[in-house]
Design goal:
Blueprint (H helix, E strand, L loop, with lengths): L1 E9 L2 E9 L9 E9 L2 H8 L15 E9 L9 E5 L14 E4 L5 E2 L6 H23 L9 E3 L5 H12 L4 E5 L2 H11 L3 E4 L15 E6 L3 H9 L1 E9 L13 H5 L3 E4 L7 H14 L9 E4 L4 H9 L6 E5 L1
Parallel strand pairs: 8-9, 8-11, 9-10, 11-12, 12-13, 14-15
Antiparallel strand pairs: 1-2, 3-4, 3-6, 3-15, 4-5, 5-7
Length: 326
């Protein structure tokens, strides 16, 4: 038996309870893991509170990220005692996730924990950090160089955005950070490496088909009219990596920036990202993230505190990462 946070549905309401679970109740998988740490993402918050249609079947153990130690394995790639990390693959939505002392998972979903990271640090990076690295890599792969000009990051104070700012600065890019709370978040974003802070309202105005060329590239986590405005301002031969739709999934723009300025729009997904690319991204994260990143605001909580934190994160009341010690 082991302790888990279990979500169940009753009269169309999501109920989150902590209870003892038998190992035999775990879903099928190749690898049994003793979970050391999980984390609380916004998606987890929506699942636990029932504010979003995240969970595809009940009962469900939430937790889209986890780091732990292999306890049993029927796959030759992993052995007892190996340290592993998991992000994505629908875990915590359609397959029991990380907010439990044990998890049974498909070996294909796992990545060996990089040797210079521990489990807590891995969860301070988590899905947000992995997605940010993939976005930054998309800019690099598009041959956009630091000397070409500033890179714009929207939603810069969020999980993906803040890591993207950090990574770009470490690679020598000048970064313009867009945030809805410039006055309060500006100093932190400057500390992470941003050279310019821009209030989000500037990008919520209707976009012209083509605007002044301001940015060599961009990483967008917002979508909709913000992305349309960004695209109109990308310089010739620039690139935009997109990974979010916080502002909506529509895109009110034209083909003109793509045709007349030869720009690239690259979608980025971390959920189904293949193993080799995922492993390379984790390795680059360990090489690029400075020690100061792991000294940022991070709240370590127990399983008993998760429900309260889930309510807070969905209300925009959480600063920094929430790491769950199992």
């Amino acid at each position: 038996m082991f302790k888990a946070l279990v979500l169940e549905q009753e009269d169309k309401k999501t109920l989150a309870t902590i209870r003892q679970v038998a190992t035999s109740e775990l879903p099928e998988g190749d690898v049994l893991i003793d979970v050391d740490y999980s984390s609380l993402n916004y998606k987890d918050g929506l699942a636990i509170t029932g504010k979003g249609r995240i969970v595809r079947q009940f009962p469900m153990v939430p937790g889209v990220d986890l780091a732990g130690t292999v306890a049993e394995s029927s796959d030759d790639r992993y052995h007892v005692g190996d340290k592993v990390v998991l992000t994505g693959w629908g875990v915590g939505e359609g397959h029991w996730g990380g907010m439990a002392e044990k998890a049974r998972l498909n070996a294909d979903w796992l990545v060996p924990l990089p040797t210079n990271l521990d489990g807590k640090q891995a969860m301070m990076v988590g899905t947000a950090g992995l997605t940010a690295m993939l976005c930054v890599q998309a800019i690099v792969d598009a041959n956009v160089k630091p000397e070409d000009g500033e890179i714009l990051v929207t939603g810069a104070s969020g999980g993906v955005g803040s890591v993207a700012v950090t990574l770009l600065a470490q690679l020598g890019y000048k970064v313009a950070a867009v945030t809805g709370r410039a006055e309060t978040n500006g100093p932190l974003l400057k500390q992470l490496g941003a050279t310019t802070i821009i209030e989000r309202s500037v990008f919520e105005e209707p976009a012209r088909a083509l605007d002044k060329q301001l940015w060599a590239g961009a990483i967008d986590t917002v979508g909709s009219k913000v992305l349309a405005k960004v695209l109109s301002q990308i310089s010739y031969n620039g690139a935009v990596a997109i990974c979010g739709l916080a502002g909506g999934f529509d895109l009110p723009t034209t083909v003109m920036p793509f045709i007349l300025r030869n720009i690239r729009l690259q979608g980025v997904d971390s959920v189904m990202c293949p193993f080799e690319k995922r492993q390379q991204a984790w390795q680059r994260l360990t090489e690029l993230l400075p020690t100061s990143y792991f000294e940022q605001a991070c709240r370590e909580v127990t399983l008993e505190q998760v429900a309260e934190c889930a309510e807070a994160i969905t209300n925009g009341q959480i600063t920094g990462r929430v790491v769950i010690k199992l």
